[in-house]
């Protein structure tokens, strides 16, 4: 018995000694083929390992190339909480519609901590429209733009050697898509959350694209190429806001119900937050508090307990939608972020929502002074570059034209959500393809000339999406870590405000700060301001 114990002790010592050597000097291990992502981590250039699991703090992402601002480089993310490799997949569910009980075929994008070994054998995720490759008839070529992921790879299994993961449901904005925010959602998954983002059928970007393609085909006396995903007559993008909001909240319930089976029961449904943008923020408010005026109940378990434990929103919805939520009934911790240059939903709307929350609800309102409504859409500049480059080379690329135009031009209804020149840097227009000529053409409204992009006139707000993304990720990760991992005793909001790093970001690195040392690694330094309405 004693010799066996000694042999086991010796084996353990050898293993731990090897791990210590690797962590101290990654170069001591023979390097494998170069990683297609570049030097994401010293250990990432090794050949894909044959065994696992491995300590999660090996997975920290620290890629200096992310800070270049070039297409495909999406902002540096060096923080000890960003420690997991990230997988992505799409789950399909059928959700009963609010209008006629119609079956809505909803795709749910999932980002999650990925198994180490599977990750290195999986292809890099490419984000694109669900209409990519769909035939449009004899006059046009199919949509083909794509955006490479920041760190996600497609389809690896979930990392199992960790406790169950808290869940963040992300709700996209009006006629947006989950992939519009993909880089930010990758960040959340790399911090140890499972992120599930339903594509809200009837209020999505692809619904608008289908309507546009169908309209163009009918005008050319051709058959409409698309049928709506709910089986109802077009237009596919519905204008009945109460029904759309009911569908959105219902999407959250169905998504939560489907997650355990999809992800090998590695999700903790007792720790669920909702994160949204624009109309998605109103969705989060209604998921937590419901809407009496529209007959929408909050998301609850069978015994009536709330399933949503925290909510965060960016660039809140228009007042008529926002204040239809039962905001006064929300008890969950709430963080709302507004844009100081947002004309679609000014900061005053967000502040009004904060002031309607019960005085006992822990809350905070943070303003990004230089942000417009779309500065929070983390893949928009990459979408614009890819779609504009394709249309510039091929005038038959109807839906690539449509994608670029929606990002570059104020729509006919005049909704001032912001355009690409407001939040994309010069390299988004010049690299890898110089699309400045087509940008000028697309933005022209005769007799007014189009926008001529130069190195000095973009972004017009002084703030790019790539600059803001690390800050939003930091705020979201810190908030949800505190809100969903707090102890059973009542969680006091002053812990959130004063504890490092979120309090430091808000109190010491906001514009107009009156003191405090600068943190070199603070992603929000100089970008945010905290309003006085937090509780």
CATH superfamily placement of one domain: Alpha/Beta hydrolase fold, catalytic domain
Strand content: 5-15%
The number of strands is 11
Task: Indicate the radius of gyration in whole angstroms.
Answer: 24 Å
Figure out the total of helices.
16
Per CATH, the class of one domain reads Alpha Beta
Given helix and strand content, the structural type is: alpha/beta
Point out poorly predicted stretches. Answer: 15-80, 486-505, 508-517
Biggest β-sheet: strands ordered side by side in the sheet: 3-4-1-2-6-5-7-8-9-10-11
Principal-axes geometry comes out as globular
Mean pLDDT score: 83
Distance between termini? 62 Å
CATH topology grouping of one domain: Rossmann fold
**H/E series:** HEEHEEEHEHHEHEHEHEHHHHHHHHE
The assigned CATH architecture of one domain is 3-Layer(aba) Sandwich
For the report, how would you describe the main beta sheet? 11 strands, mixed
The helix content is 25-40%
What does this structure look like?
With 535 residues, the chain is of the alpha/beta class. Among the domains are: 2-67, no CATH class; 86-130 and 146-201 and 247-374, 3-Layer(aba) Sandwich (Rossmann fold). It contains 16 helices and eleven strands. An eleven-stranded mixed sheet has the order 3-4-1-2-6-5-7-8-9-10-11, sandwiched between helices. β1 (86-96) and β2 (103-113) form a beta hairpin. It is globular. The termini are far apart. 49% of the residues are buried. Residues 15-80, 486-505 and 508-517 have low confidence and may be disordered.
């Amino acid at each position: 018995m004693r010799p066996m114990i000694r042999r086991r002790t010796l084996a353990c010592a050898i293993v731990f000694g090897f791990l210590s050597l690797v962590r101290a000097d990654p170069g001591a291990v023979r390097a494998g083929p170069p990683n297609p992502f570049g030097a994401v981590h010293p250990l990432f250039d090794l050949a894909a390992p044959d065994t696992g699991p491995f300590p999660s703090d090996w997975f920290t992402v620290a890629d200096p190339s992310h800070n270049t601002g070039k297409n495909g480089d999406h902002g540096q993310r060096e923080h000890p909480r960003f420690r997991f490799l990230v997988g992505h997949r799409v789950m399909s569910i059928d959700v009963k519609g609010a209008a006629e009980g119609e079956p809505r075929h909803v795709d749910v994008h999932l980002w999650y901590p990925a198994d180490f070994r599977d990750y290195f054998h999986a292809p890099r995720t490419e984000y694109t429209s669900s209409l990519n490759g769909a035939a449009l008839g004899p006059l046009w070529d199919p949509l083909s733009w794509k955006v490479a992921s920041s760190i996600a790879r497609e389809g690896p299994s979930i990392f199992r050697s960790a406790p169950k993961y808290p869940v963040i449901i992300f709700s996209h904005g009006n006629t947006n898509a989950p992939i519009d925010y993909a880089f930010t959602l990758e960040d959340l998954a790399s911090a140890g959350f499972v992120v599930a983002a339903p594509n809200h059928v009837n209020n999505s970007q692809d619904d608008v694209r289908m309507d546009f393609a169908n309209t163009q085909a009918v005008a050319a006396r051709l058959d409409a190429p698309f049928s709506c995903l709910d089986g109802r007559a077009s237009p596919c993008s519905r204008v009945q806001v109460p029904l759309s909001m009911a569908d959105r909240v219902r999407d959250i319930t169905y998504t939560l119900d489907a997650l355990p089976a999809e992800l090998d029961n590695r999700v903790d449904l007792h720790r669920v937050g909702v994160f949204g943008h624009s109309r998605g923020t109103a969705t989060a408010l209604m998921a937590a508090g419901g809407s009496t005026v529209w007959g929408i109940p909050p998301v609850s378990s069978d015994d009536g307990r709330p399933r949503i434990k925290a909510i965060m929103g960016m660039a809140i919805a228009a007042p008529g939608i926002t204040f239809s939520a039962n905001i006064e009934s929300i008890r969950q911790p709430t963080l709302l972020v507004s844009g100081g240059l947002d004309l679609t939903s000014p900061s005053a709307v967000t502040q009004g929502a904060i002031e309607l929350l019960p005085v006992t609800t822990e809350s905070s309102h943070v303003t990004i002074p230089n942000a417009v409504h779309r500065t929070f859409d983390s893949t928009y500049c990459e979408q614009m570059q890819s779609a504009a480059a394709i249309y510039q080379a091929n005038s038959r690329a109807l839906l690539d034209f449509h994608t670029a135009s929606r990002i570059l031009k104020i729509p006919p209804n005049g909704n001032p959500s912001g355009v690409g020149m407001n939040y994309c840097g010069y390299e988004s227009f010049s690299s890898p393809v110089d699309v400045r000529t087509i940008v000028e053409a697309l933005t022209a409204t005769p007799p007014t000339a189009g926008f001529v992009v130069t190195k000095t006139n973009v972004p017009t707000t002084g703030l790019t999406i790539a600059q803001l993304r690390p800050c939003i990720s930091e705020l979201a990760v810190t908030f949800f870590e505190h809100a969903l991992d707090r102890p059973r005793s009542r969680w006091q909001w002053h812990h959130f405000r004063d504890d490092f790093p979120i309090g430091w970001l808000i109190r010491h690195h906001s514009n107009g700060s009156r003191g405090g040392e600068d943190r070199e690694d603070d992603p929000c330094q100089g970008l945010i301001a905290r309003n006085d309405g937090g509780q």
